[in-house]
Structures are given as C-alpha cells and as structure tokens.
Specification:
Number of domains: 2
Largest sheet: 2 strands, antiparallel
Helix content: 55-70%
Strand order of the largest sheet: 1-2
CATH topology of the largest domain: MetI-like fold
Order of helices and strands: EEHHHHHHHHHHHH
CATH superfamily of the largest domain: MetI-like
Number of helices: 12
Shape: elongated
Number of strands: 2
Radius of gyration: 27 Å
CATH class of the largest domain: Mainly Alpha
Length: 330
C-alpha cells in the first residue's frame, strides 16, 4: 500500500487513519488570542497607538493643518477680554479645536505637542522603574537573609516619603542643579519628573517581583539548575526572569497611565514644564480661570487626557486578564 499523504498511517488491520497534528501554543500566543477577542481591549489598543502616532508625528500633522503650538494668532481672539472669536472657543477649519483665550495658541497643536512630553515622561519613567524594580526584587527574593532584609527596609523607607510633597519641595533646587549640568530649562524639568517618579515608584514593583521570586525559587527547574552548578546570575536572569514577564507586563501597562496623570497633575500645580511649552496639566490649570465663560477650553484637554488614561487602564486590565492562567480557554 502506498501512502497517499504524509499524515496517513497504516494500522495493523490494513486501514488508513489520518493523523491530527496537535500544535502547542505559548503563553504569548494564548494571551494575544484572548486580546483579539476582547473588543474593548482592541479598541483601547487602537486609540493608544493612534495617540502615540499623533505624538510622534506632531510636527508633520501640525504643519499639514497649518498651526504651531507657540504661534500667536491675534485675529482669533477679541481685543476686549481676549476671548476667542466665534462659537465653542473659536473652532473652525483653521483651528479644529479652537484657540486658547488671551494667548491665541492653537489647542489642537498644543494637545499634540503636550502628548509628546507626557508620553516621553511616562515611557521613560516606566522603563527606569521596571529596570530598578525587577533587578532589586529578583535579588531580594532569591538571596533572602541579610541582603533581603536590607533591601526590604530600603523599600519601606522610600515608600514612607510623601511623593507629592517631595516633588513640590525639590522641584526648584533639583531643576537648577540639572540646568547647571547643561540641560535646558524644559529638559531639566522633564528629567526631574522622570527621576523622581522612577525613584519613588520602583519599590512597589520590587515587592511584587520579590513575592513571585520567593515562590519560583522553590520550583523544580530552579533546584535543577542549582544542582547542575549554574551561577547565580544565570539562575536569576535566565531561569527565573522569563517566568516573571506576565506580572511585569501587567504592572507596566498600569504604570503608564499613572505617570501620564502624574505629569499632568504636576504641571497643573505649577511644578511641571514652564510656559509657553505645551503641557496637558498647564492647559487645564489655565482653563480653570475661564471655565464660567469658556467651558470648552477645560472640556477639550480634560476629555483628551481622560480618554488617553482610560484607554491605557482598560488595556492594562485586558492584558492582566489575558495573561491570567486561571482564565477559561477555548
């Protein structure tokens, strides 16, 4: 008997039975399958990618529209009171989202350029937080003993500091120190916010990672690596770390909107970027003065910030559910 297919096998009775290939799926494939089935998650992912694209392409987009975040458009505001001319804050074809009162800055351009600052701070701060938190958490959870106790007390001390008060108190002196190193005023403010948020944010992740490592270090594959004479660095970063990507990724997706909102809050309180540099928080702070006569000035940047933070949070929740091994699989 000749085989008609590579998947056909001959049984002792002479009949041919078709073989069924069973392909295993990795955790990444399973998680991506779950995410694709979640309409809320995919919508949030699409909006997040759109915001990132608009932020990266802000110079090109604003050039096409014909606006700039720091250009003054005197014909768009009235001489008496400085309010925008026209309905809904001066919304028109030339200014899709209107203009700011008094200054006449284009709101659309300032939102796009403000998102560049917010996303830069959020992604940079999250990256530094992940590096510090994961490294310290793995070392503390695996070492135990004196080193674990010392790192644990260090986390407790850092977490005991009131973050908001530290940011308000150290904003001016640290920004001046960074300017003395050769950074521009705006760059020094951005660097200050990133460093402070990262320094006070990593202990939360380190505690999560430490708890996971305490469980993983007792697993058979770690004991096998130890018995085979593997070094500590190999055990930590080649054996244990790959099993921590799920909680790390979930924490990162939830940390990004936290840092975005933190930057907006700091700019709202006056310790963020200096005007006329566009910032979501600075726009919200300025809009409070005109809320009774021009509510759209508060509504537009406020809703944009709300949607961005909400999409990041929804995406983070979806990633957490997709990576949950206890979730049902179909």
């Amino acid at each position: 008997m000749s085989l008609a297919s590579d998947h056909a096998v001959e049984t002792p009775s002479g009949t041919s039975v078709e073989q069924t290939e069973i392909a295993g799926r990795s955790l990444t494939q399973i998680a991506w399958t779950r995410l694709r089935r979640d309409k809320v998650a995919m919508t949030s992912l699409g909006l997040v990618l759109l915001v990132i694209f608009l932020a990266a392409a802000a110079p090109v987009v604003t050039r096409i529209v014909g606006v700039h975040p720091t250009d003054f458009y005197p014909k768009t505001v009235s001489d008496a009171g400085g309010l925008p001319i026209g309905k809904w804050g001066g919304i028109s074809l030339d200014h899709p989202l209107g203009v700011e009162p008094s200054t006449g800055y284009d709101i659309f351009a300032r939102l796009l350029y403000g998102s560049r600052i917010s996303l830069l701070i959020a992604f940079s701060g999250t990256l530094i937080t992940l590096v510090l938190g994961v490294t310290v958490g793995i070392i503390a959870g695996y070492s135990r003993g004196f080193l674990d106790t010392t790192l644990g007390r260090l986390m407790d001390i850092i977490l005991a500091f009131p973050l908001l008060l530290i940011l308000l108190a150290l904003s001016a002196p640290l920004a001046q120190r960074l300017e003395a190193l050769g950074l521009s005023p705006d760059a020094s403010r951005v660097a200050f916010i990133i460093l402070v948020l990262s320094f006070f944010g990593w202990p939360y992740l380190a505690r999560i990672v430490r708890g996971q490592v305490l469980s993983l270090r007792e697993r058979e594959f770690v004991e096998s690596a130890v018995s085979m004479g593997a070094g500590t660095s190999r055990i930590l970063f080649r054996e244990i770390l790959p099993n921590l990507w799920a909680p790390i990724l979930v924490y990162a997706t939830l940390l990004l909107p936290t840092y975005i909102a933190a930057e907006a809050s700091l700019s709202f309180l006056g310790v963020g970027l200096l005007p006329p540099t566009p910032s979501w928080g600075a726009m919200l702070a300025e809009s409070v003065r005109y809320f009774t006569v021009l509510p759209s000035f508060l509504f537009i940047p406020g809703m944009y910030l709300f949607i961005v933070v909400l999409c990041f949070n929804l995406l983070g929740d979806a990633v957490r559910d997709a990576l949950d091994p206890r979730a049902g699989r179909s």
